[in-house]
């Protein structure tokens, strides 16, 4: 092995010296055209080999904004579940026009308004009073039964809240069935059910009785109809019965079939809303007949089913009613039938794909060749680490892209101009809807629209903007009822929306005894989404005519409604509540942050439009005294002003307390410990606001502390929020962990049909609860990982994880209406392409971008300003296209590395490598693997290359450290174990060193780094300890003698005799008590004691003759010597034989060792 060591050093050093003069090799690699992976339609095809049995987890969603369908794809009996977005109960009714949007406080007179203000100020003053209680109210009065009660503080807040009068929820609508009872499903083969996200077409196909059958399903936005097409590859094979089933349980239901059309009408019981659906059946060939309320088709070549539906809902106060839907539904169904299937499909695909195809994304993925449910199962196996089959890296990337694009697909299918915005379930659901299926304005409805702008789907944001324009009018009543700030006709003094809203503009600050409904900054947050629409689109007409007036009204409201807290020494929102956690307070961070951001946005908008200079000064003064972010004693962003450390609060001289209701959570943990709360309401400053950013390290550090405390796990939608938050921090590892947790999260992530689930039960994971904001929030989070622009400049790839180190993006949008293409490889960008839709100045940030070249569409150089090494700015023209080409690093010289690596590979593969000590094997293998990686990396720096070969060279030097020959030591240990099994038979003075030597020898045996000197030393020490072992002496005779002499009467004997006797007795007792006494000393003590007994008076020797000499002593001691009572040198036969064997063994080993050393 020493020869190996010398050879290794010599060859490697010689190679190094020679190769330092070799020329540098060119190792550049071409940029891969990753767009080809996205060009295959199958990548964005969700497919299954079985029909769906459950709408929530398996059925496929189609939609056109107005209505949604869930495709089950049964063969014998197919079902398409239908939802129509305006089918809601509640609101005003024909017999009750007193609907007041949930508000209950009278606001007609000045006295009414003053009472509200008095109640408001009373609770604010109570919350600000810290003379007795940290939060103003007795902490013991806070109840722990969810958000339903909050003790005395809730009683005070109830005076400002409304109730659920007229509150509403979406209603289930209808089922479309297609039945063929003649089919034997057990004989069906080649079944496929799929959804192509790029075309919005769902398909079912199968083979039966020698015929290939196909069904296509789509919801057309241009024609506002649902279409199902049935075909076969042989003529006359289409046979089915079809019918509609009402799910509204409404009044005056009629369901009739006449000719080729089924008509189903009813009115909702709660509010009389008129609902109508018509299904037209258009066969090609064959026969059509009516069967009660259903229609039969027999022996047709093909058939098309066209469904249109509608209500008399109209998004207009105060009645929310328009025309009877019959004429509109009849007109649409007739026009669609006249148009024909081919044109219906063509127009639908053109409309849908025009939106969807605007953006592509790729991460070096491969098209999955297994059904989507199987792919998801494999991904979950990976996330759960349960030992099941896991996806390849390429399959992982594919599923992550599919889930991203599914969020875009649902945006197109769920939110189109002219329709209502998407609710908690979008426009899909069966039976009752979780959480009332309403518009939750404390994060959920806003999250629905987070991805629209960056994902290049601005048109899909319009329904949200339109809804706010109408909600604004109703929200003025909430401002009056809760704050006493009223807008008379023609006035715009402020509008609010609480946590819950509906198509009937329910706007009150929540119902009594539910603090979660108290959400006075709901309108400020709602308008943030719409302001983002402006920032991305640059639509100044929308800003001027619609958005700014609404923003100005809310800013003026807060200018009047803010309360100066003497205790906090700042303006606060009061009373205030942090969704959905903790006590009622003044100035929860959640409210403070949205008020600050709203002032900031409104000021920017006013300056953009050049208006309201006097108001801007007023708003700035209030904004400057809000302190939206305060850092606590744990370094965290505080959720409440009184918070000290996590979960603790203190005020003034009062004792620190546990924060009431802190971390209250919906899901119960199986361990008894509830998981961290799903809401991160105090980090709204990081996302969706931009108060906290990388440009403010102190705040960013505090946000990181808070994020780490809350952990990565959560419900579906909460994971989406955390994904966006982590992306804003730039921490790609944590962001990607949440990507994986969402995609593979099961009941608290994406279900098998890719719907996002909030989850219910233990830790939110026991059963699924579909809630669509998790889909939208995930897509928004991926956008944030790849592109950010909230700070006034574009950040390219700000949170790119290692797993996505090669990829591309086409068509993502940044604020300023810049469309961005990007491609990168091995974690480094190649090019950024900027399409300037509006023109104007562009600023971009990326590492080393100041050294890039920038060209226009004709290839001409573009002048730019280097703001820093990592940021540039240049002017753009409207519709101009600009390419930023990043400098590619010079390839490193890997000649030395290649030679050293080749030599190291040979040593690693040799038989002698197994003899190298363990620690060197491990360090050598690690250095070898690193060298392999660096050598294979075309973008490895010269510094990394040099470090790799130098580290590997050091490990080569260590190859001379070989393991010692442990065969002799192993045999010696085996012999010693027999001694150790009876170690209590040996004196402690000799046994203890032996046990220690044996333990050391065993440690050397187990030590993979033990070399020959270590082994020899262990052998020698163990053998010496073994040879020095001494048996414990047999003290039975001595014990008997001592017992007898204690009974002697020595009173008559002389002092000299007694002294001699006592000395001998003491000496015998000392020997008896000495655990290390040898047999010779014991025998001598017996003899000496016997000799010291006086002989003037003969002793009574009836029982034992104590004057016998040693040779006359009973043979007990001698017997012990022949049966194991002696020592290791003169005792029993087995120890002697073992010792001789051990000496021989070690002697031979020493001889061999000396021979080797020569």
List the helices and strands and how they pair.
Layout lengths: L1 H18 L15 H5 L5 E4 L11 E4 L3 E5 L5 E8 L25 H19 L22 H8 L15 E6 L9 E8 L4 E8 L2 E10 L4 E8 L5 E9 L4 E8 L2 E7 L6 E11 L2 E5 L2 E7 L1 E10 L14 H14 L1 H16 L3 E3 L9 H13 L8 H22 L24 E2 L3 H5 L13 H22 L16 E2 L20 H16 L2 H22 L1 E3 L4 E3 L3 E3 L2 E5 L3 H21 L3 H11 L24 E2 L7 E2 L38 H14 L5 H14 L2 H12 L29 H14 E2 L5 E3 L10 E8 L3 E8 L2 E9 L3 E6 L7 E4 L8 E4 L2 E6 L3 E6 L9 H15 L8 H19 L5 H16 L9 H15 L6 H19 L5 H16 L8 H10 L9 H19 L5 H13 L24 H8 L9 H25 L1
Parallel strand pairs: 27-31
Antiparallel strand pairs: 1-6, 2-3, 3-4, 4-5, 5-10, 6-7, 7-8, 8-9, 9-16, 10-15, 11-12, 12-13, 13-16, 14-15, 17-28, 18-19, 20-21, 22-23, 24-25, 26-27, 28-29, 29-30, 30-35, 31-34, 32-35, 33-34
Helix pairs in contact: 1-19, 3-10, 8-18, 10-11, 10-12, 11-12, 11-13, 12-13, 13-14, 15-16, 16-17, 16-18, 17-18, 19-20, 19-21, 20-21, 22-23, 22-24, 22-29, 23-24, 24-29, 25-26, 26-27
Structure described in brief:
Among the domains are: 96 residues, no CATH class; 222 residues, Beta-galactosidase, Chain A, domain 5 (Distorted Sandwich), CATH 2.70.98.50; 229 residues, Glycosyltransferase (Alpha/alpha barrel); 81 residues, Sandwich (Immunoglobulin-like), CATH 2.60.40; 92 residues, no CATH class; 88 residues, no CATH class.
């Amino acid at each position: 092995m020493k020869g190996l060591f010398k050879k290794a050093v010599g060859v490697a050093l010689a190679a190094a010296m020679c190769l330092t003069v070799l020329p540098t090799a060119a190792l550049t690699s071409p940029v891969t055209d990753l767009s080809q992976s996205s060009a295959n339609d199958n990548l964005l095809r969700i497919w299954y080999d079985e029909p769906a049995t459950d709408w929530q987890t398996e059925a496929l969603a189609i939609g056109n904004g107005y209505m949604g369908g869930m495709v089950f794809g049964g063969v014998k009996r197919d079902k398409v579940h239908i939802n129509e977005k305006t089918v809601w109960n509640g609101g005003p009714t024909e017999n009750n026009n007193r609907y007041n949007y949930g508000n209950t406080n009278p606001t007609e007179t000045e006295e009414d308004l003053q009472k509200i203000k008095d109640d408001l100020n009373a609770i604010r003053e109570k919350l600000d009073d810290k003379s007795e209680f940290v939060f103003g109210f007795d902490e013991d009065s806070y109840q722990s039964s969810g958000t339903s009660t909050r003790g005395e503080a809730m009683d005070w807040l109830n005076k400002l809240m409304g109730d659920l009068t007229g509150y509403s929820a979406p209603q289930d609508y209808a089922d479309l069935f297609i039945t063929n009872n003649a089919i034997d499903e057990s004989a069906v083969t080649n079944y496929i059910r799929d959804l192509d996200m790029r075309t919005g077409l769902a398909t079912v196909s199968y083979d039966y009785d020698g015929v290939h059958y196909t069904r296509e399903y789509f919801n057309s936005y241009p024609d506002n109809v649902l279409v199902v097409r049935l075909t076969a590859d042989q003529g006359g094979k289409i046979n089915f019965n079809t019918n509609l089933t009402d799910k509204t349980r409404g009044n005056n239901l009629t369901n009739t079939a006449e000719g080729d059309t089924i008509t189903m009408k009813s009115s909702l019981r709660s509010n009389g809303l008129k609902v109508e659906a018509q299904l037209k059946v258009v066969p090609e060939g064959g026969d059509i007949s009516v069967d009660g309320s259903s229609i039969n088709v027999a022996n047709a070549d093909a058939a098309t089913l066209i469904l249109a539906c509608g209500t008399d809902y109209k998004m207009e106060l105060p009645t929310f009613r328009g025309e009877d839907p019959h004429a509109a539904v009849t007109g649409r169904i007739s026009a669609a039938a006249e148009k024909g299937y081919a044109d219906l499909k063509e127009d639908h695909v053109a409309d849908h794909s025009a939106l969807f195809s605007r953006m592509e994304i790729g991460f070096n993925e491969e098209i999955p060749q297994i059904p989507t449910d199987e792919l998801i199962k494999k991904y979950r196996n990976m996330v759960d680490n349960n030992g099941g089959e896991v996806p390849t890296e390429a399959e992982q990337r594919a599923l992550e892209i599919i889930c991203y694009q599914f969020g875009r697909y649902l945006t197109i299918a769920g939110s189109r101009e002219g329709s209502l915005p998407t609710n908690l379930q979008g426009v899909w659901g069966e039976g009752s809807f979780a959480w009332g299926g309403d518009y939750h304005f404390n994060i959920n409805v806003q999250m629905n629209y987070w991805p629209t702008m960056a994902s290049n789907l601005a048109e899909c944001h319009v329904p949200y903007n339109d809804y706010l324009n109408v909600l604004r009018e109703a929200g003025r009543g909430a401002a009056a009822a809760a704050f006493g700030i009223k807008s008379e006709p023609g006035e715009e003094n402020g509008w609010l929306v609480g946590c819950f809203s509906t198509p009937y503009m329910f706007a009150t600050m929540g119902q009594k005894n539910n603090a979660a409904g108290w959400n006075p900054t709901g309108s400020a947050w709602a308008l943030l989404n719409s302001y983002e629409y402006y920032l991305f689109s640059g639509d100044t007409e929308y800003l001027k005519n619609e958005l700014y007036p609404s923003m100005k009204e809310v800013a003026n409201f807060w200018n009047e409604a803010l309360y100066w807290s003497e205790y906090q020494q700042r303006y606060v929102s009061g009373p205030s509540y942090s969704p959905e956690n903790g006590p009622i307070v003044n100035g929860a961070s959640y409210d403070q942050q949205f008020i600050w951001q709203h002032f900031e946005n409104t000021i920017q908008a006013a300056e953009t439009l050049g208006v309201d200079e006097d108001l801007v000064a007023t708003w700035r003064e209030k904004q400057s005294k809000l302190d939206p972010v305060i850092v606590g004693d744990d370094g965290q962003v505080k959720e409440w002003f009184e918070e000290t450390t996590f979960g603790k609060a203190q005020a003034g001289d009062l004792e620190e307390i546990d924060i009431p209701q802190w971390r209250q959570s919906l899901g119960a943990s199986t361990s008894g410990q509830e998981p961290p709360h799903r809401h991160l309401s105090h980090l709204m400053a990081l996302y969706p606001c931009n108060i906290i950013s990388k440009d403010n390290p102190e705040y960013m550090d505090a946000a990181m502390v808070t994020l780490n405390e809350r952990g990565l796990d959560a419900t579906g939608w909460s994971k989406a929020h955390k994904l966006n938050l982590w992306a804003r921090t730039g921490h790609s590892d944590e962001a990607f962990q949440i990507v994986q947790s969402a995609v593979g999260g099961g009941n608290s992530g994406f279900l098998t049909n890719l719907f996002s689930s909030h989850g219910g039960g233990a830790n939110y994971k026991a059963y699924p609860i579909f809630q669509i904001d998790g889909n939208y929030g995930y897509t928004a989070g991926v956008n944030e990982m790849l592109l950010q622009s909230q700070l006034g400049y574009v950040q390219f790839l700000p949170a790119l994880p290692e797993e996505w180190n090669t990829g591309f993006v086409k068509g993502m949008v940044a604020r300023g209406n810049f469309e961005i293409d990007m491609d990168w490889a091995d974690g480094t960008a190649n090019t950024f392409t900027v399409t300037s839709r509006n023109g104007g100045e562009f600023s971009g940030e990326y590492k080393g971008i100041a050294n890039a070249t920038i060209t226009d569409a004709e290839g001409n150089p573009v002048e730019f300003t280097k703001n820093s090494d990592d940021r540039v700015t240049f002017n753009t023209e409207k519709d101009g296209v600009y390419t930023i080409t990043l400098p590619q690093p010079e390839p490193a010289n890997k000649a030395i590395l290649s030679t050293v690596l080749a030599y190291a590979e040979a040593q690693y593969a040799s038989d002698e490598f197994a003899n190298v000590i363990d620690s060197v094997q491990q360090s050598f293998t690690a250095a070898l693997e690193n060298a392999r990686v660096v050598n294979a990396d075309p973008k490895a720096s010269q510094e990394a290359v040099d470090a790799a070969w130098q580290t590997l060279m050091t490990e080569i030097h260590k190859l001379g450290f070989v393991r010692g020959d442990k065969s002799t030591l192993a045999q010696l240990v085996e012999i010693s174990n027999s001694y150790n099994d009876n170690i209590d038979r040996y004196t402690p003075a000799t046994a203890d060193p032996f046990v220690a030597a044996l333990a050391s020898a065993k440690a050397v045996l187990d030590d993979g780094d033990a070399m020959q000197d270590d082994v020899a030393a262990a052998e020698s020490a163990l053998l010496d300890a073994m040879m020095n072992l001494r048996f414990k002496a047999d003290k039975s005779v001595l014990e008997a003698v001592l017992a007898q002499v204690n009974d002697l009467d020595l009173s008559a004997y002389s002092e000299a005799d007694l002294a001699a006797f006592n000395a001998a007795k003491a000496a015998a007792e000392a020997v008896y008590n000495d655990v290390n006494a040898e047999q010779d000393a014991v025998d001598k003590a017996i003899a000496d004691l016997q000799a010291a007994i006086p002989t003037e008076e003969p002793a009574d020797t009836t029982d034992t003759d104590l004057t016998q000499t040693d040779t006359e002593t009973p043979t007990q001691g001698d017997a012990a010597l022949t049966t194991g009572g002696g020592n290791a040198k003169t005792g029993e036969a087995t120890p002697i034989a073992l010792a001789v064997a051990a000496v021989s063994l070690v002697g031979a080993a020493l001889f061999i060792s000396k021979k080797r050393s020569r």
